[in-house]
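pls read this stuff:
=====
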Amino acid sequence: MNTMMIKATVTALMPTDCRKSFYGKAIVKRYDDLNLSILESYGTPVCAYLNGMFFRLWHGWKATTGRHISAFTETMKGTRINKAGYEKMMTSNLSELFTMAAAYADTDRPRGEKVAA
């Protein structure tokens, strides 16, 4: 069996509005080797950013988690996402995302290039 050790850098997500902090309730796990970032809100993976695209990992919406999602999307791509935008995101799960990220990392394509389905 071939297993690969993947290291993540974990950082606290900073608000992009007038708030000072999310007080550790929102973190971003960044997997640089895979070009993948995952937002966790209150310990739950809720949103991911892979190769220029956002993916919805959680199917709920709460006011505070919504603020976390908006700050994450603004930090990653410069665009704040509201509830309607979040509900329109392509859905995925962590297993699918890591598979896509690993497959993409194994190619010679430049980062950010779209992969044809």
